[in-house]
Amino acid sequence: MKEFLHYFRTFAPFFQHFYALIIGAAVLAVRKYMQRVRENRAAMWPSADGQVQTATVKKQQYGSWVEVSYRYYAQQEYRYGKYRRHFARKAAAVAFAEAIRGHSIQVRYRDDKPSESVVLEQDLQMTGVLQVG
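and the corresponding structure tokens:
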């Protein structure tokens, strides 16, 4: 039993990194799945022209995030929303932020709750800003 514990302590750090990698990959997969579900649901919502207000790059341990704040006009009021996108490389995140900053984008919003909005990946591809990232 002592030998087993000795070997376990020797290889434990390797397995901790392995488990962290597996958990991180699972979290990213779940986020991607949830984003796709949300986009599929929002595809039939009405759309409005939105204007990107800010695009901020945020560095994290495993990649970078770009947080895009936008404004759109729906049901006689200006409304605000946020869109976040993950990038493995900071350079790609910076390029995306620079490409989208100041652009007009298509925003989908709930008809019964216009303050809830979504920016679809396919709409961003049509504007050309996703070709950068």
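(Above: one complete record from the training split.) The chain has a mean pLDDT of 86.
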